What does this fold into?
Amino acid sequence: MGIIYQIFLKNIRVYYRNKPSLFFSLLFPLVFIGVFGIAFQYGAPGNSPITIGVINLDQGIPGNTIVLSQNGSKLSGNYFSQEFIQILKNVKYEDNKTYAFDINLYNSSIQAQSDLLRRNILALVIIPSNFSLLMMSKIREFVEKNHINASLNGFPPTNYTSNIVVKGDSTLLGYTITSTIVSQIANSYVNFSQANSQRYVILEGTTQTKGITVFDLTTPGLLIFAILNNLGTITAVALMDKRFGFLDRLKLSKLKPWQYIFGFTLSQILVAFVQVPIMFFAAVLFGFQVTTQYLPAFVFIFFFALSVTGMGLFLASFISNPDSAGGISAIIGTPMAFLAGAFFQIPNPVIIGKGGILGDHIFRVFDFLPATPTLTGLRLLLIDGVPLQNLSFELSLVAALSILYFVIGLIFYARRHLRTN
Amino acid sequence: MTFALEASEVNKIYDSNVHALNNLSLKVDQGLVYGLLGPNGAGKSSFLKIITGLIKPTSGSINLLGKNIRELNELKGKIGYVPQELVFEDYLTVEENLKLFASCFSISNPKERISELLKSFQLAEIRKRRAGTLSGGQKRRLNVAIGLVIDPEILILDEPSAGMDPQSRNLLWEMINDLSKKQDITIIISTHLMETADRLCTKIGIIDKGYLITEGTPEELKARYNSSLSLQITFKKIPDQNKKIEFKNRLKKIIEDCEIQEDEKSLAVRGSNLELILTKFIETSTEIIGISNIQGININPVTLEDVFIRLTGSNLREGK
It folds into this structure.
């Protein structure tokens, strides 16, 4: 344990005694916090409704199928999509007075697109034609899971899928807020088996949203950006340890490669753990509206710091000059921050599209970046106050991707630098 | 007899097809101070890295302290290695660097050992200074001190005095001398400082272009290569070229194994028979050149450097 502690201590000392690394890890992101804080803390939409459009393409419940609600009444037609639209209409800001959305219903997609382009509406929500069938498949799932004796003739299978589309200009705050709220409500509504009771709560009009500022939305991204900024230092230190013979000298000692890596990784995670509260505190000073879920955020930070360490080890396996580590890391880290949506959401680059080799699943470049689920998780925790236990998907994704990144980095670094040539 | 090092037909070919070592074989007895001499690029550092297990040889076998170097794990903590490059962390203080390495080597009583090293290498006063801010000589001393953080059974030093000021260098040689006398430690050292190698090493190997050219004690080497005497005659005026040629031819006839070197105003001769050279050199030069034109005659004992230049055709210090 003493050896690991000494390696850990060495890296921490190198970190805080090295002015450029301190600048890039802490001061540089703090400047961003300041700039974004000043620029966008007053950019909030306030408690005014966002005008959005809805096109309901739902073809309804098939006429020959009987669907009953929990109280036994028969449901028909566009019951589900109408109910969903009603939920959207009932969403309120946290003052419990102002509605979040002012909804225009469209029959024609041409008119809706035209209004979207003219910014008469800030987002367009398209309810798909098979929305009711989707809900019926969810009812089947619920019935089967709970062993309820009910006739399910005409109900689609449980793996039935459908997509609600939110269109709009992703650089606009109104679109960002809309897509976030719609996706949350849609997930909650559609997931009938989990949220059966919640549906009726939502219908009672208690769903609320607070007045989110651009700065609120950006702060989790800036935390990601700060940790990604460590990439240069991590790469340089890992590279210098080899380049200047430090690792060779240690090879003759009783230090084992895993002890070196463990001490090295721990130090990088600690750096992130120190960085985040400082950034967080600064963000709060600049008006970041934090929820109570800030401690669980460190679980995401832990895994993300692990992935960045893996990336650093990976880069150190290929770069030969420590002086170029900073530049190359910036070339990789900055686009990664943008792709994950750290500063603002960008159009999704689809690499394997619908109907491709993975069927209906759509994978995008940012799906493979640990920064993406980390950012989603941090936003849901810090802005929306979603408890950690409800973020098992995001957390599992971050953990899986981060461990994958770390293992890949480790394998390359060990092959390149920890073995005898 | 147990050898501290047994290297047999070691070859090292780097990716760029550079042959760093060619069938190099040598044995080092336990407790010896073995000096490895050679110009830059001779293969000294490659050899030292191979015998410490830091790089793999292309072929050949190496036993260190009776163990095959492939079993590096069993040798860990027994090898003290001082690389030619300065290997420590610039952002750590002198003391922190020593602590780090002491911890990695899992030595007992690290505080006591660090304190000893700080004192021995005159680093105690600068223990709190960051290594990156030290002078060249201080950095070198720290580099060596780190190699001695353990009590090694074999100490390998690769050009440890490169860039050291004379004071630091003397301190280092004294330390090495003391170590070799007090403990049963084997020291293998590569250096380009002939006078030091001559004074410090019990055995010397000369290496060039990856080949071990020769080895022996400093005295054996000097004797083996007729290097016991060198005479130099200097002239007042530049003598006539014909006379110089005649002088050289005459001397070659009388002393067959002599070597003559000349420049404008002097002639030097080397050979094994001191008496014959002395008599015939003076006799012939007086006769042909004339006593009035002779400014002086110097008798020089030949150094290891002369041996080296003779063997490799290079100037060791410059590595040319």
Remarks:
- Residues 63 and 117 of chain A are 37 Å apart (CA to CA).
- The radius of gyration of chain A is 25 Å.
- Chain A has a mean pLDDT of 80.
